[in-house]
Design goal:
Number of domains: 2
GO molecular function: asparaginase activity
Organism: Geodermatophilus africanus
Protein name: L-asparaginase
CATH class of the largest domain: Alpha Beta
Family: Belongs to the asparaginase 1 family.
Distance between the termini: 39 Å
InterPro entries: AsnASE_II (IPR004550), Asp/glu_Ase-like_sf (IPR036152), Asparaginase/glutaminase-like (IPR006034), Asparaginase_C (IPR040919), L-asparaginase_C (IPR027473), L-asparaginase_N (IPR027474), L-asparaginase_N_sf (IPR037152)
Number of strands: 16
Strand content: 15-25%
Shape: globular
Radius of gyration: 21 Å
Helix content: 25-40%
Length: 338
Amino acid sequence: MDGRVRVAVGSLGGTITMTAPAAGGGVRPELEAADLLRGVPGLGAVAEIDATTLQTVPGAWLRPADVVAAGDWAAAQVAGGADGVLLVQGTDTIEETAALLDLFWDHPEPLVVTGAMRSPAAAGADGPANLLAAARVAADPGARDRGVLVVLADEVHAAARVRKTDSIALHAFTSGSFGPVGRVHEGTVTFAGRAARWPALPRPREGNDPPRVALLETHLGDRGELLELVTGAGWDGVVLAGFGAGHLSAAAAEVVGAAVRRCPVVLASRTGGGPVLAGTYGFVGSEEDLLARGVLPAGWLDPRKARLLLWALLAGGADAGTLRATVTARGAAPGGPA
């Protein structure tokens, strides 16, 4: 070894790997990891790169088991001497896969996730630039102890906060109320603020069926029928994406009391920014009313991140007290403990 920084790159597929079939039609995942890296000028100057193709599928096809397996692969690369790991995948699910990886990642070495909004053959394809920026972050000492990071469009996002907020724009990813944690510029990485992260959660228990956790968004005229159907069918948990700061209709609120006796119910906001409040509003269906009925507050976590946290806790066998304390604490400080 020559002492250079080592970055392991694993590809799961996604738009960044997609090409059009000869017969015409829409693009499909075809390229392998080595194919992606050959098209990135200057990558070899960033780090010694090892490329592995893990899967070649659209981001929408990925399952929690695939994400956990990718995390295991990444951990094995670190154990083998990698200074950082880069996972490439479809942007459809990056905001969820990165957050799930982050819940279990217990290494100081950075695990970075990236992808592309345009396929390689498109004019202005963003894949090479995203790969180069993400590799720089994975190789940067300042990325250590920050958990899982998402890098697109030269911005560095914390996995616990990043969201995809546009279906086609190159700047499709944002971090809601708090913004990115860093930027890539002139071949360097600049981080804003200190590194902070929550401890890794226990891994999913072997041999058990994965928990079923529903995500239900309220709507005008919601009477809670879907919540009744889900909890009555024996689902293991529910996240409710409420109006505003965490509100439901009076009719839906009446269903919540029975639902929380069947399974954990987490209350989040469907707005995409700001927290669930605790005691500002006091009407039936307000956050104060719903918390009194036994829901768990998602705080600053958006509904998708709250669902992943609840899924991971249930998959790891957390008891009711641990589950309540963990959801409440992480929702209050999504960037890590103070």
